[in-house]
Protein backbone atom coordinates (compact mmCIF):
# COMPACT_ATOMS: atom_id res chain seq x y z
CA UNK A 1 0.00 0.00 0.00
CA UNK A 2 1.42 3.36 -1.02
CA UNK A 3 0.26 6.95 -1.38
CA UNK A 4 1.33 8.99 -4.39
CA UNK A 5 3.33 11.95 -3.09
CA UNK A 6 4.99 14.89 -4.83
CA UNK A 7 8.26 12.93 -5.09
CA UNK A 8 6.75 9.54 -5.92
CA UNK A 9 5.04 6.76 -3.96
CA UNK A 10 5.21 6.79 -0.16
CA UNK A 11 4.78 3.34 1.38
CA UNK A 12 2.52 2.84 4.41
CA UNK A 13 4.06 0.33 6.81
CA UNK A 14 1.74 -1.82 8.93
CA UNK A 15 3.02 -1.17 12.46
CA UNK A 16 2.96 -4.44 14.46
CA UNK A 17 1.11 -5.90 11.45
CA UNK A 18 -1.94 -3.81 12.33
CA UNK A 19 -4.46 -2.70 9.73
CA UNK A 20 -6.69 -1.04 12.33
CA UNK A 21 -5.69 0.90 15.43
CA UNK A 22 -7.82 -1.06 17.90
CA UNK A 23 -6.90 -4.58 16.81
CA UNK A 24 -4.40 -6.87 18.49
CA UNK A 25 -0.84 -6.74 17.17
CA UNK A 26 0.90 -9.44 15.16
CA UNK A 27 -2.19 -11.07 13.66
CA UNK A 28 -1.33 -14.03 11.44
CA UNK A 29 -4.05 -13.18 8.93
CA UNK A 30 -2.69 -9.64 8.49
CA UNK A 31 0.80 -10.98 7.82
CA UNK A 32 -0.54 -13.33 5.13
CA UNK A 33 -2.69 -10.58 3.62
CA UNK A 34 0.06 -7.98 3.52
CA UNK A 35 2.57 -10.48 2.12
CA UNK A 36 0.33 -11.05 -0.89
CA UNK A 37 -0.72 -7.41 -1.32
CA UNK A 38 2.79 -5.97 -1.44
CA UNK A 39 2.71 -4.21 1.93
CA UNK A 40 5.53 -3.01 4.12
CA UNK A 41 5.15 -5.05 7.30
CA UNK A 42 6.72 -4.89 10.76
CA UNK A 43 7.11 -7.29 13.64
CA UNK A 44 9.03 -6.73 16.87
CA UNK A 45 11.35 -9.47 18.12
CA UNK A 46 12.78 -10.14 21.58
CA UNK A 47 15.21 -12.83 22.70
CA UNK A 48 13.83 -15.31 25.22
CA UNK A 49 15.60 -17.10 28.07
CA UNK A 50 16.61 -19.96 25.79
CA UNK A 51 18.02 -17.86 22.95
CA UNK A 52 14.99 -17.91 20.66
CA UNK A 53 13.21 -14.92 19.15
CA UNK A 54 9.60 -14.32 20.15
CA UNK A 55 7.40 -11.84 18.32
CA UNK A 56 6.78 -9.38 21.14
CA UNK A 57 7.13 -5.65 21.66
CA UNK A 58 7.48 -5.26 25.44
CA UNK A 59 10.03 -6.44 28.00
CA UNK A 60 7.26 -8.12 29.98
CA UNK A 61 4.50 -10.40 28.79
CA UNK A 62 1.89 -8.42 30.71
CA UNK A 63 -0.14 -6.33 30.28
CA UNK A 64 -0.12 -6.59 26.46
CA UNK A 65 -0.59 -10.39 26.39
CA UNK A 66 -2.42 -12.98 28.47
CA UNK A 67 0.89 -13.94 30.10
CA UNK A 68 3.02 -12.57 32.93
CA UNK A 69 6.75 -12.38 33.52
CA UNK A 70 9.90 -10.98 31.95
CA UNK A 71 10.52 -12.12 28.39
CA UNK A 72 14.27 -12.51 28.93
CA UNK A 73 13.65 -14.90 31.84
CA UNK A 74 10.98 -16.97 30.08
CA UNK A 75 11.71 -19.86 27.68
CA UNK A 76 9.82 -19.87 24.42
CA UNK A 77 7.91 -23.06 25.28
CA UNK A 78 6.37 -21.36 28.31
CA UNK A 79 4.73 -18.81 26.00
CA UNK A 80 2.70 -21.47 24.21
CA UNK A 81 -1.01 -20.74 24.60
CA UNK A 82 -0.59 -17.00 25.21
CA UNK A 83 -2.33 -14.38 23.09
CA UNK A 84 -1.88 -10.71 22.32
CA UNK A 85 -4.69 -8.40 23.46
CA UNK A 86 -6.71 -5.92 21.45
CA UNK A 87 -7.50 -2.36 22.55
CA UNK A 88 -10.36 -3.62 24.74
CA UNK A 89 -8.05 -6.04 26.54
CA UNK A 90 -9.52 -9.10 24.85
CA UNK A 91 -7.23 -11.93 23.68
CA UNK A 92 -7.27 -12.46 19.93
CA UNK A 93 -7.05 -16.10 18.81
CA UNK A 94 -5.55 -14.87 15.52
CA UNK A 95 -2.69 -13.24 17.45
CA UNK A 96 -0.96 -15.91 19.53
CA UNK A 97 2.43 -15.21 21.06
CA UNK A 98 4.72 -17.10 18.68
CA UNK A 99 8.36 -17.73 17.93
CA UNK A 100 9.50 -15.75 14.91
CA UNK A 101 10.08 -19.03 13.06
CA UNK A 102 6.48 -20.15 13.56
CA UNK A 103 4.93 -16.81 12.60
CA UNK A 104 6.77 -16.57 9.27
CA UNK A 105 6.75 -20.26 8.30
CA UNK A 106 3.44 -20.03 6.34
CA UNK A 107 4.91 -17.28 4.14
CA UNK A 108 6.93 -19.86 2.25
CA UNK A 109 3.69 -21.31 0.90
CA UNK A 110 2.17 -17.97 -0.14
CA UNK A 111 2.80 -15.85 -3.25
CA UNK A 112 4.76 -12.74 -2.38
CA UNK A 113 4.00 -9.49 -4.17
CA UNK A 114 7.18 -7.87 -5.54
CA UNK A 115 7.05 -4.82 -3.28
CA UNK A 116 6.51 -6.73 -0.02
CA UNK A 117 9.04 -6.31 2.74
CA UNK A 118 9.09 -7.48 6.36
CA UNK A 119 10.93 -5.46 8.98
CA UNK A 120 12.25 -7.33 11.99
CA UNK A 121 12.35 -4.60 14.64
CA UNK A 122 15.04 -5.84 17.00
CA UNK A 123 14.34 -4.95 20.63
CA UNK A 124 17.08 -5.36 23.23
CA UNK A 125 16.41 -5.40 26.95
CA UNK A 126 18.57 -3.29 29.25
CA UNK A 127 21.41 -5.36 30.65
CA UNK A 128 20.87 -8.24 28.21
CA UNK A 129 23.29 -8.85 25.34
CA UNK A 130 22.03 -10.37 22.11
CA UNK A 131 22.96 -14.07 22.33
CA UNK A 132 24.57 -15.87 19.41
CA UNK A 133 21.80 -18.48 19.65
CA UNK A 134 19.17 -15.82 18.92
CA UNK A 135 21.10 -14.61 15.86
CA UNK A 136 21.19 -18.17 14.55
CA UNK A 137 17.49 -18.59 15.37
CA UNK A 138 16.53 -15.52 13.33
CA UNK A 139 18.64 -16.61 10.39
CA UNK A 140 16.99 -20.04 10.36
CA UNK A 141 13.52 -18.53 10.80
CA UNK A 142 13.74 -16.40 7.65
CA UNK A 143 15.77 -18.79 5.49
CA UNK A 144 14.46 -18.53 1.95
CA UNK A 145 12.81 -15.17 2.62
CA UNK A 146 16.00 -13.15 3.02
CA UNK A 147 15.47 -10.68 0.18
CA UNK A 148 12.19 -9.53 1.78
CA UNK A 149 13.78 -8.86 5.18
CA UNK A 150 14.85 -5.57 6.74
CA UNK A 151 16.46 -5.63 10.18
CA UNK A 152 15.90 -2.37 12.03
CA UNK A 153 16.84 -1.32 15.53
CA UNK A 154 17.97 1.43 17.88
CA UNK A 155 20.95 -0.87 18.45
CA UNK A 156 22.86 -0.67 15.19
CA UNK A 157 25.76 -2.99 16.03
CA UNK A 158 23.39 -5.81 16.97
CA UNK A 159 21.26 -5.18 13.88
CA UNK A 160 24.44 -5.51 11.82
CA UNK A 161 25.05 -8.91 13.43
CA UNK A 162 21.61 -10.08 12.35
CA UNK A 163 22.01 -8.77 8.82
CA UNK A 164 25.38 -10.47 8.51
CA UNK A 165 23.65 -13.75 9.38
CA UNK A 166 20.84 -13.16 6.86
CA UNK A 167 22.52 -12.61 3.48
CA UNK A 168 20.35 -10.42 1.27
CA UNK A 169 18.59 -8.69 4.18
CA UNK A 170 18.73 -4.90 4.40
CA UNK A 171 19.78 -2.79 7.37
CA UNK A 172 17.76 -0.07 9.07
CA UNK A 173 18.74 2.26 11.91
CA UNK A 174 16.55 4.11 14.39
CA UNK A 175 18.63 6.87 16.02
CA UNK A 176 15.84 8.18 18.25
CA UNK A 177 17.16 6.38 21.35
CA UNK A 178 20.48 8.16 20.77
CA UNK A 179 18.55 11.44 20.42
CA UNK A 180 16.87 10.85 23.80
CA UNK A 181 20.28 10.35 25.39
CA UNK A 182 22.12 13.13 23.56
CA UNK A 183 19.89 16.18 23.41
CA UNK A 184 22.30 17.91 21.02
CA UNK A 185 21.05 15.46 18.37
CA UNK A 186 17.69 17.25 18.41
CA UNK A 187 19.43 19.62 16.03
CA UNK A 188 18.67 18.10 12.62
CA UNK A 189 22.06 18.90 11.14
CA UNK A 190 23.83 17.18 14.04
CA UNK A 191 21.46 14.24 13.68
CA UNK A 192 22.35 14.00 10.00
CA UNK A 193 26.06 13.91 10.88
CA UNK A 194 25.38 11.23 13.51
CA UNK A 195 23.68 9.06 10.90
CA UNK A 196 26.29 9.82 8.25
CA UNK A 197 29.06 8.49 10.52
CA UNK A 198 27.12 5.23 10.88
CA UNK A 199 25.80 4.98 7.33
CA UNK A 200 27.78 1.96 6.11
CA UNK A 201 25.26 -0.58 4.85
CA UNK A 202 22.23 1.35 6.14
CA UNK A 203 19.42 1.63 3.60
CA UNK A 204 16.64 2.96 5.82
CA UNK A 205 16.47 5.33 8.80
CA UNK A 206 13.50 5.41 11.18
CA UNK A 207 12.70 8.84 12.59
CA UNK A 208 9.85 10.06 14.77
CA UNK A 209 7.51 11.97 12.50
CA UNK A 210 7.69 15.08 14.70
CA UNK A 211 11.49 15.18 14.33
CA UNK A 212 11.06 15.38 10.56
CA UNK A 213 8.32 18.00 10.84
CA UNK A 214 10.52 20.05 13.20
CA UNK A 215 13.48 19.84 10.80
CA UNK A 216 11.29 21.04 7.93
CA UNK A 217 10.01 23.95 10.04
CA UNK A 218 13.63 24.96 10.66
CA UNK A 219 14.34 24.91 6.95
CA UNK A 220 16.58 21.81 7.14
CA UNK A 221 15.56 19.10 4.63
CA UNK A 222 16.65 16.13 6.73
CA UNK A 223 14.87 13.39 4.77
CA UNK A 224 16.05 14.83 1.45
CA UNK A 225 19.65 15.03 2.70
CA UNK A 226 19.46 11.40 3.81
CA UNK A 227 18.24 10.45 0.33
CA UNK A 228 21.34 12.15 -1.05
CA UNK A 229 23.29 9.60 1.01
CA UNK A 230 21.23 6.76 -0.47
CA UNK A 231 19.18 6.31 2.72
CA UNK A 232 15.38 6.33 2.75
CA UNK A 233 13.44 7.73 5.71
CA UNK A 234 10.57 6.03 7.53
CA UNK A 235 8.46 8.39 9.67
CA UNK A 236 6.94 6.72 12.76
CA UNK A 237 4.22 6.41 14.04
CA UNK A 238 1.42 8.40 12.34
CA UNK A 239 -2.11 7.48 13.38
CA UNK A 240 -5.60 8.94 12.97
CA UNK A 241 -6.94 11.22 15.67
CA UNK A 242 -3.97 13.56 15.83
CA UNK A 243 -4.58 17.25 15.43
CA UNK A 244 -3.56 18.54 11.99
CA UNK A 245 -3.06 15.02 10.62
CA UNK A 246 -3.56 16.29 7.06
CA UNK A 247 -0.84 18.93 7.56
CA UNK A 248 1.51 16.36 9.10
CA UNK A 249 1.09 13.96 6.20
CA UNK A 250 1.51 16.70 3.62
CA UNK A 251 4.71 17.88 5.32
CA UNK A 252 6.13 14.35 5.46
CA UNK A 253 5.41 13.67 1.80
CA UNK A 254 6.82 17.02 0.69
CA UNK A 255 9.89 16.32 2.84
CA UNK A 256 10.64 13.26 0.67
CA UNK A 257 9.87 10.66 3.31
CA UNK A 258 9.63 7.31 1.52
CA UNK A 259 7.70 5.36 4.16
CA UNK A 260 5.21 6.17 6.93
CA UNK A 261 4.61 3.78 9.82
CA UNK A 262 0.99 3.54 10.97
CA UNK A 263 -1.41 1.31 12.88
CA UNK A 264 -4.24 2.29 10.52
CA UNK A 265 -2.97 2.16 6.93
CA UNK A 266 -6.44 2.38 5.37
CA UNK A 267 -7.36 5.55 7.26
CA UNK A 268 -3.98 7.16 6.66
CA UNK A 269 -4.21 6.29 2.96
CA UNK A 270 -7.58 8.05 2.79
CA UNK A 271 -6.29 11.09 4.69
CA UNK A 272 -3.16 11.37 2.57
CA UNK A 273 -5.10 10.92 -0.67
CA UNK A 274 -7.75 13.58 0.05
Automatic annotation (TrEMBL):
Key words of the record: Plasmid
MF GO annotations: phosphoric diester hydrolase activity
InterPro entries: GP_PDE_dom, PLC-like_Pdiesterase_TIM-brl
BP-aspect Gene Ontology terms: lipid metabolic process
Pfam families in alphabetical order: GDPD
Record-annotated GP-PDE domain positions: 41-266
Protein name: Glycerophosphoryl diester phosphodiesterase
Organism in which the protein naturally occurs: Sinorhizobium sojae CCBAU 05684
Amino acid sequence: MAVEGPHGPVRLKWHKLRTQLAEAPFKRSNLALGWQLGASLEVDILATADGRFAVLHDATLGPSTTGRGHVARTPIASMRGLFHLDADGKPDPDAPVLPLSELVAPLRMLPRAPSTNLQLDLKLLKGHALPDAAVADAAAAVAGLEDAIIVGSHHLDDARRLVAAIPGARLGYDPMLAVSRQRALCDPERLLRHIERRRSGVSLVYLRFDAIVAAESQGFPLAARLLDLGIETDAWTVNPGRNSIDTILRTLMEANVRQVTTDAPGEIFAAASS
